[in-house]
Amino acid sequence: MSVSPNIQRQALIPSRIWDGDQMLTGQAVLIADGRIEAILPAGEIPAGVQRRELPGCTLLPGLIDAHVHYAESCGPAYLAAGVTTVRDVGNDLGWILGQKEKNHGDPARGPRILCCGWALDGMEGIWQQIAKRHPDEASLRAAIRDNVSHGVDAIKLYASLNEPMLRAGVEEGHAHGLKVLAHLNSTSAEEAAIAGLDEIEHFSRCDVAWRESNTEEDDRLIDRFLAHGTAMNPTVNVWDRLGRAMEHAFLHDGRRRWLHPQLLDIWERFPYRRCEASKRLRFQSMMPHIKRFLLRCHERGVVLGAGTDSPFINLLPGFGLHDELAQYVDAGLRPVDALRAATVTNARLIGLEKTIGRIRAGMDADLLAVVGNPLERIDDIGNVKAVFRRGIPLAPDDLLTSAREYFASPIDDPIIRDLQNYVSGELPSYSQKS
Questions:
Q1: What end-to-end distance do the CA atoms of the chain give, in Å?
Q2: CA torsion sign, 85 to 89 to 93 to 95?
Q3: Measured distance CA(355)–CA(112) in Å, rounded
Q4: Of 21, 58, 79, 327, which sits with the fewest C-beta atoms within 10 Å of its C-beta?
Q5: pLDDT digits over 88-135, tens only?
């Protein structure tokens, strides 16, 4: 689906507006040229402006998923779920930059993309299409410079980098003015924080998050995060979905209609659906500890973003962010705090807090209208009524048609190739530490 930008002024008139900070009633959002022109009383909409009533709806900033591995066929699903911006945290450099440019030129094609380029790993890395392996600090620094020269938005370091290598990567990324994030395995979260890492993905190597611990133990690690300004992107559902890979209900999730059959086949053949039960039970037993640590991080003021790691098993592109926010609330956060993670906080983490993440005059008109009030009932975030990307209204039926156009042909995106090789047993593996 390709839609030409409509520069006509329009006014959105919902029952409620959550602007990222507070709930407003009796107000309208005036849009022109893809940006928010004003928030004004509904009775003061200028004559001649196209009006769109959204009764019973809450209007929110478009959602931001700060941890994905983008696949082209998933673009419509992200938009249909109200996810108007994603940060790709590991992909073929040239391919993802091409997708970023295409989506910028056609906002109805998929979400705005920020990207890290290649995920940068050590020599024990397993991914072949979305990551590059490096034997020493010099080669890692050179790879970072190459990513930077091509215009990436951040640097992603990966699991098998040891502490000296990770420290070198952080130093090099910061030298070029970019934030550095990492999925840790060979380096502990404490070591990474001391090294100046900006953001930790998946609670990786946050050891107390994976076992029974007391508040004093949690706080010792959290103190380190606060002292060094280390943010967290927990991706709680990654671990939940691995633990529940055999759960029958996922096969009957109607939102799967948005996904290419090839991806659904990958999920069906995912190793955690074929492994011994003890491996799944391990993740199930860890979930209460992960949620406990998530809540404690929030209570102490650690910066918490939100991401999904889609399209790994049962992590639905776009809609999976709704599930992630529900996990935050289940852990004890208020719905408003979960929503801030996917809007205001994520916008700051990806460096676009002046452009997206709030409903403010001058910001891009990336907006989501849902039936109900997700600040009272987080599940209402899934009741999507309308989505706007740079002011362009995107009809769900049109987006679903666009998604299905991909279904007629095989998909060969880098992440899909890696996942296919993974489920076929063609990739090496490493021992995942907690």
A1: 43
A2: negative
A3: 12
A4: 21
A5: 999 999 999 999 999 999 999 999 999 999 999 999 999 999 999 999
Burial (CB count <10 Å: 0-12, 13-18, 19+), residue 235: buried
Cis peptide before 76 (omega within 30 of 0): no
Give the single-character DSSP code of 102: H
User: In sequence order, what are the residues at sequence separation of 6 or more whose Cβ sits closer than 8 angstroms to the Cβ of residue 362?
Assistant: 35, 36
Residue 81 backbone dihedrals phi, psi, to 5 degrees: -90, 0
Evaluate whether 393 touches 351 at the Cβ level (below 8 Å). Answer: no
- Say if residues 315 and 308 touch (Cβ distance below 8 Å): yes
Q: Is 267 helix (H, G, I), strand (E, B) or coil?
A: helix
In the block, tokens 């671990």 appear at 239
The number of C-alpha atoms within 13 Å of 265 and in the hemisphere containing its C-beta is 11
Beta-carbon neighbour count of residue 6 at 10 Å? 15
Question: pLDDT tens for residues 139-169?
Answer: 999 999 999 999 999 999 999 999 999 999 9
Structure-token pair, residue 229: 């300004």
Once rounded to an integer, what is the mean pLDDT over residues 321-334?
98
Cα gap 75→360, rounded to integer Å: 26
Closest alpha carbon to 81 in 318, 358, 295? 318
pLDDT tens for residues 188-241? Answer: 999 999 999 999 999 999 999 999 999 999 999 999 999 999 999 999 999 999
As a whole number of angstroms, the distance between CA 206 and CA 221 comes to 8
d(CA 144, CA 134): 11
Taking only Cα atoms into account, the Rg of the chain, rounded to an integer number of angstroms, comes to 21
